[in-house]
Give the backbone structure.
Amino acid sequence: MTRYLNIAVILALIGSAVYAYTIKYQTAFRAEQIAKTKLEIKAERDLAAMLRADWAYLTRPERVQELADRYLELEPLAPDRLMLAKQLPERAPHSDAIGDKIEMLGLGVASTPPADPASAPTTPKANAKAAGH
Amino acid sequence: MTTMDAGPATSAPSLVAPKGLGARLRAFIGRVFSTSLLSSGPRIRLVALFFFALYGTIAGRLIYLGFTPEAPSVRKAVAAAPARPDLLDRNGEILATDVKTMSVYAEPRRLVDKDEATELLTAALPEVNAKELRDRLASRKGFVWVKREVSAQQRDEVFHLGLPGVGLIAENKRIYPNGPLGAHVLGFANVDNAGIAGVEKYVDSQGLGDLSGAGFSLTQADLQPITLSLDLKATHALRDELAKGVEHFKAKAGAAAIMDVNTGEMIAMASLPDYDPNTPPDVKDQNLINRVNVGVYEMGSTFKALTIAMALDSGKVNLNSHFDAKSALTFGRFKIHDYHAQNRSLSVPEVFTYSSNVGTARMALGQGVERHKAFLRKMGQLTRLRTELPESAEPIVPKNWGELNTMTIAFGHGLAVAPLQAMMAVGALMNGGYLITPTFLKRSEEEAMKDAVQVVKPETSEAMRYLMRLNAEKGTATKVDVPGYFVGGKTGTAEKVINGHYAKDRLFTTFFAVMPADKPKYLFMTIMDEPQGLPETHGFATAAWNSGEVTGKIIKRVGPLLGVVPRATPPVLPFPILAKLGYALANTPAPPGGGGH
């Protein structure tokens, strides 16, 4: 009886020792990982700061202006080109000049059913198509 | 070892005493190494004591070492350039930031062969002077710099030299990506990353310098970026237009600034000639000073705005009052002339739009010397203006301020102030009467209003805005009347004092403009030092032709950048208080043309 108990105790001892060491090594491993990640974060931060500085340097207004003057045909934004959306004129009511004319001539609405999109000459594309026929 | 077997008898000293020296020695050794049970007890105790003492000493030493802090290594003891907070513009664009660089150092005491080290290091770092380096390495110091801020390639080379006693430290280097933009506001930091001028110095004075001095090594992550009031894009546009203007009019120098009149924030500022803070200049170079807040100048006719505001605010004068400007004003042997002489009695708006020296001088005389002085003191024109920028200048105030001084100061001669100071006062005349100390840090209107002092009545402020607007419609400031922005403006031309006399051909021109005049938001200022007359200005070098021209261009360019919405039609009732007071005329737009320049 005592012998089994001893064996059990020894096994438990070995088990707990193995477990403790596993934990210990895992901890060391994780600590190393944390330290490594911290270093990486620091390196990334430094790099990000460097890139931000680089970006700020490359997009400095002085340089952008020079490049825009050389390669773009844009003009400086002048106050008379600015407007609020509500200052824009309302969209004109939709008018169908040809349709109106047909109606005025009394050539019944029935002959051109409005449901047929091909018959409504509103877009240039449709016009071109009609001209082609 | 036979004596050992002699048993306990040998331990009795009396028995062995008469023997010879050799025998006594042998007996002594025998006793020492005796394994007799009788004497082993105390010996074991002795040995135990010895080991206790030994291990006790080791344990004690370990505890002692555990408690004493690690002696600082040489690397940590030196002041490697500390991190500084980023400086951002009001929209979050970077104005100044830190990047990491490597610096090479040496510990002369640990160097094995100084000559060899010098040779190898100068081969890797060709910029380093060999003789100087040898002297430095020969010193008995614990630490010397070999070279600050080396390139990545040089860093690798030095690393691969593998010299004992030579090492690399990561340092922070201050970078100003926008070069000279806002340089006078930012100031700069030296190689040790300590602020030397401008906001950089201000940041240090706010505790950063103390922290890093006390050995706290702050990292970039610990430091909150500092947001300035400057707008990077507006600053660029302002500087660009100013530079063009200074070149075009062949001025010796120029400066321009934009202030938010409701918060006192400086939106943009430039002073030419300027410098690139990445390559710090000679701080003592007088030509590079910030002309907006370090130079003091006689502001010329822009001061008339202050005089008229004083007169209107006193209640003795209203917009319909007339002042005699029939002829030059004589005082003793001095005579005050008008530049645009009308030779008749002028109303207050006419005094302003014709920029009449005689009219304003009479107006100031009507108030008296003491009230004039008190008013200017209230407007902050007689004391040094202090902002976040460590650089500032004391205004030059006449020692014996008599009636003549009041008369000349009324039209901006005889009192020299910093242009920023004048901006603060004009801003107060525009924004409803609140004197707000200008700031270079971002702040809200509520924060600004906390310390604001009401210096003139709201109706006086509105009258001044009306006068400024009138001046842009038909007075001397028509150059800034950008359509849609309802701008108001005032010119100022002062003759410079050369050898104690006013020189007619050496002018200092100023221009103030407010936008929009009905709901003031931005105050523009441009100053130029000795601009020249050009054929297209008909040879004139007065403010309207140069500073006014530049201000107009700045407004046109900066307005859209600052998001000011132009109005297709002028505001219906721009000056409601004046309308209530019975000046209906103020709210009807003036017919174009009229006044001279």
Q: What stands out?
A: The two ends of chain A are 109 Å apart (CA to CA). Chain A touches chain B at residues 45-46, 49-50, 52-53, 56-57, 60-62, 65, 76-84, 87 (CB under 8 Å). Chain A is about 65% helix and 0% strand.
